[in-house]
Amino acid sequence: MKNNLYFKWLCDKVVAEPNQYNKLLSHLFSKPYNPRCELDKDRATDGLYLRKEYFGEISDEPCSVLEMMVALAVRCEKSIMSNDDKGDRTSQWFLEMLVSYGLGQMTDDNFDSMYVDSCLEINNPFSVNSPVDMHRMPIWDQMQLYLIEVAVDEGILKKEDLKWVTT
Q1: What does the alpha-carbon distance between residue 139 and residue 123 come to, in Å, rounded to a whole number?
Q2: Domain count for the chain
Q3: Contacts of 5 (CB under 8 A, 6+ apart)
Q4: pTM score, whole prediction
Q5: DSSP character string of 56-96
Q6: What is the dihedral of CA 164, 68, 122, 140, to 10 degrees?
Q7: Which of 30, 66, 31 shows the shortest CA–CA distance to 47?
Q8: Is there a domain that residue 30 lies in?
C-alpha cells in the first residue's frame, strides 16, 4: 500500500527540504517500527492512522519508523504545543527527534544505513537534561519530559516548579 506519493505527503508534513534527507527518510519509511514497550504500540497505531488519513483505510503492513515519527510530531503539535504566536512547529518536533536519535547530520551526502539502524536501536527519540533513564520510558513520556524542558526554555514554566519531574 505504501507508495511514492504517500511518502512525499509524509515528508512534506515534517521536512521543508526533504531532498537533503531523502536517503534517510526513505530508509525510515522502509524500516518497520518495533515498539520497545507495550505503551509504545500506541505510537505505531498513530502512524497507521496517517495511512487511514491518506488512503482512507489501514493496510496490514506494519507501521514504519517514519510513519511513527511523523505521527508523533503531528500529534505533539496539534494536541499539546499548538501556539498561534509560534506557528506550526511540527517540523521542529520531527527534527528534534532526528537529532536526539543521532541522525541530524545524516544528509544524503553522509548517509550510512548501518549507522542509522544502530542509532535507532540505542538512542531515544527525545533527550532531556535529567537523570531519568529514558530507555525504559515509553516514547510518549519521553516526549512529555522534553516538552516540559521546551516550556521552561520558552518561559511558560519555571524550573523551580518542576522538582517533581526528576524525583
Answers
A1: 11
A2: 1
A3: none
A4: 0.87
A5: SS--SSPPBHHHHHHHHHHHIIIIII--TTT---HHHHHHH
A6: 10
A7: 66
A8: yes
The verdict on residue 92 lying in a domain is yes
Residue 70 and residue 47 in contact, taking contact as beta carbons nearer than 8 Å? yes
Q: How confident is the model at residue 50 (pLDDT cuts 50, 70, 90)?
A: very high
* 10-14 LR contacts (CB < 8 Å, sep 24+): 10/50, 10/66, 10/67, 10/70, 13/70, 13/73, 13/74, 13/90, 13/91, 14/69, 14/70, 14/73, 14/74, 14/90, 14/91, 14/94, 14/95
Instruction: Determine the pLDDT at residue 103.
Output: 96
Q: Is the Cβ–Cβ distance between 64 and 30 less than 8 Å?
A: yes
DSSP H/E element including 126:
none
Position 88 scores a pLDDT of 80
Q: Which residues in 16-31 are b (16+ Cβ under 10 Å) and which e? A: eebeebbbbbbbbbeb
User: Does 167 have pLDDT greater than 60?
Assistant: no
Asked, for residue 57, whether it belongs to a domain, the answer is yes
In a domain? residue 141: no
Say if CB 93 and CB 70 are below 8 A apart: no
> Which residue range(s) make up the domain with 67?
4-127
Q: Which three cell numbers stand for residue 93?
A: 518536533
